[in-house]
Amino acid sequence: MKFATRAIHAGQEPDPTTGAINVPIYQTSTYVQEEIGKHKGYEYSRTGNPTRTALEECLASLEGAKYGMCFGSGLGATMNVMNLLSQGDHVIVGDDVYGGTYRIFDKVLARYGIKFSWVDSRNIKNIEQAITKDTKLIWLETPTNPLLQIVDIKAITDLAKAKGLLTVVDNTFASPYLQTPLALGADIVLHSSTKYLGGHSDVVGGAVLTSHEEAYKTLKFHQNAVGSVPGPMDCYLVLRGVKTLAVRMEAHEKNAMAVVNYLRDKPAIERVIYPGLADHPEHEIAKKQMSGFGAMVTFVIKGGLSNANAFASSTKLFVLAESLGGVESLLCHPVSMTHGSIPKEIRESRGIVDGMLRLSVGIEHIDDLLEDLEQALAKVPVLTSAK
In Å, how far are 84, 267, 269, 368, 385 from 382, measured between CA atoms? Predict the structure, then answer.
């Protein structure tokens, strides 16, 4: 079956008792057992829940994975993956990642003796040079947050396999509709299902997908042992959102390209970043490993923080808010929001500056979105020499 069909049907058979077309919300904490040691597949809802099972099977199908596991948040999924490691293990991380990923690695897991090297993963030599005898895992985002850098998944996973290392790809920005890292050699794919998978800004969740048998056994054990699992209502909301993922991503991307073309020649804009642009440094890699370029657009406004604030406080449809991937358009200031946990000197060395804004382009009518950008830009002073 094709992607759009699997999004609607995979793991989602009609309820055998009532014939309900939608998977029910199994709002229960425990399950009656017929006799000691004999049950119908479910014992306790931290361990398993039929609504969660449906979502896990659906997401696994969309990513081309054998196994799916869902969690209470994207960071809950991240923490589960890191339970593959032990004290003294070393991880190589792309240096442009979500601020929450940086925080959990640098401020939490480092305290437990896990070591991290941060490298520009666009250059595979940086990764190769960072490998030590203790290296166990390579952690990638592509497209990255917020700089929308693209890393060559196939090249890096080939290197990882040659060195006996696991590779994890955070696929949140692309979604499985536009990119399937497992097909490019990745061992594990991670999502914040809060974003495009849910798609309606009404649920928080995370997911881990893999076909790696040994990794799955460890991950599944820790899913139950640690207990960072989503409730059945959360699973239902993500499952409902996934049904329209294909049509939403098409609409998101079409709008994003129009927004990019609109912003590029505006005098108040210093730089527009989008993998779909021919002058994006990794445009050819994006074309090779993605079926589309997504709906995240990052740009730098001249005049720094004051002009970024003037713009962000003037938009009406692009609302200033954390998160991304919903049907509505959102506007984020990475320095003060998603990447506020990263020290200023590190942010700026990576190009995350005060004038940077990140758009999650929604699926409203494009004329209305462009009109909103136009009226907000009219409130920004044009500083031709400002940095």
Answer: 51, 6, 9, 23, 9
User: Could you say which DSSP state residue 282 is in?
Assistant: T
Amino acid at 31: Y
- Give the global pTM: 0.94
Residue whose entry in the numeric block shows the structure tokens 């070393």: 90
Q: Could you give the CA distance from residue 109 to residue 103 in angstroms, rounded to a whole number? A: 9
Inter-residue contact 337 to 320 (CB < 8 Å): no
Give a yes or no: residue 218 inside a domain: yes
- Give, as one character, the DSSP assignment of residue 254: H
238 shares a domain with 259? no
Of 156, 157, 181, 155, the closest CA to residue 169 belongs to: 181
Helix (H, G, I), strand (E, B) or coil at 159: helix
* Active site members: 46, 98, 170, 195
User: What strand order describes the sheet that includes 296-301?
Assistant: 269-273, 296-301, 356-360, 330-332, 319-320
Task: Give pLDDT tens digits for 179-206.
Answer: 999 999 999 999 999 999 999 999 999 9
Mapping DSSP to helix (H, G, I), strand (E, B) and coil, where does residue 266 land?
coil
Helix axes 213-226, 74-82, angle to 10 degrees: 120
Give buried/exposed letters for 161-197 (b at 16+ CB in 10 A, else e). Answer: eeeebbbbbbbbbbbbbbbbbbebbbbbbbbbbbbbb
Q: Domain check: are 209 and 294 in the same one?
A: no
Q: What is the mean pLDDT of residues 97-112?
A: 95
One-letter identity of residue 282: E
CATH number of the domain residue 107 falls in: 3.40.640.10
Alpha-carbon 152 to chain mean position: 17
